[in-house]
Amino acid sequence: MRRWILSLSVLATVGCLAAAEGPPSASPETAPAIEHAKLNTADASPVDPGHVEVEFGTSTIWARHAWDSDGDLHQRGLAREQAMGLAVTVGVVESVDVSACLDYLWLRDDDYGAATTNDDLGDLGIGGRYRFYTNEQYGVDAAWISGFTAPTGSRGNEVELGTSQEFWSWDNSLVIEKDWTRWTMNAEVGWSQPFGERRGDDRGTLIANLAAGYQVLAWLQPEVELNGCREFTAGGDDESSVAVTAGLVMPLNDCLRLNLGIQQGVWGENADQATSAMLAVKVGF
After folding, report:
1. Closest by alpha carbon to 249, among 260, 239, 236, 238?
2. Among 59, 106, 111, 195, which one is most buried in terms of CB atoms within 10 A?
3. b/e code 98-134 from CB counts within 10 Å (16+ = b)
């Protein structure tokens, strides 16, 4: 699986680079076109009808500390998750696209007990994005993103960690983006609703993300994000976390974009203080 994804990524990247003369450059008299994509905050810009985007991504998340229910930080054994994934997005009609994504995971958790490792496929995500509002005069777009997560990963047991959330969920987000001359901002609020008999004590997850980027060059946009998450449970021990993301969004040419960044947890309750590094290559056709 890992070799297959890496091979596809290399071939697609080389093909795109060969098809283009180099990174686009803006005229001195005009500001460069703004890229709306961010690392951990969704955007409201669907893929054009008849076009396809394929994203190859990899990330590593690790933690050696965790917050308790009072928000105090304590040391814990190493927890690590490495992921390599593939996502495909297809433009259906104007302002609407559909997507599917799937990861392969390598897990380790020294505090989990006898079962400390595992590697397997993760859960399958399928969904669609509908841009229901656009105002070119003020540079504002709004979209609704909805989809389902199917528990295709492995369940945890006494021998191995699980790579699945183990239940179905219905995932929804409202996304608003606003452009200025070179500045761009994305805001996202989302809710994931678990359902089915295997959801256990899980009652839903609320996310809130805010991202801002500055288009320095046509092929370079540094960006920062504030990412919040709260997982509600029937037992009352809800997990909350706030993290900061910093990265680079690089639309190198018309069909190739590179995303690179790091995220650091800065506050939480009943949650790990996680650090993550991310790299993604997106190819458009």
Report:
1. 260
2. 59
3. bbebbbbbbbbbeeeeeebebbbebbbbebbbbbeee
Q: Is the sign of the CA dihedral 192, 193, 199, 201 positive or negative? A: positive
Dihedral (CA of 46, 14, 26, 260) sign = positive
C-alpha–C-alpha distance, residues 250 and 261, integer Å: 11
Under DSSP, the state recorded for 70 is T
**Structure-block tokens of residue 143:** 């979209």
Q: Using an 8 Å Cβ cutoff, are 218 and 24 in contact?
A: yes
CB 64 within 8 A of CB 265: no
Residues β-bridged to residue 280: 57, 259
Predicted model pTM: 0.89
**Structure confidence by residue, pLDDT tens digits, 66-96:** 999 999 999 999 999 999 999 999 999 999 9
Residue labelled with tokens 């990265």:
247
Which of 222, 224, 272, 266 is closest to 245 using CA atoms? 224
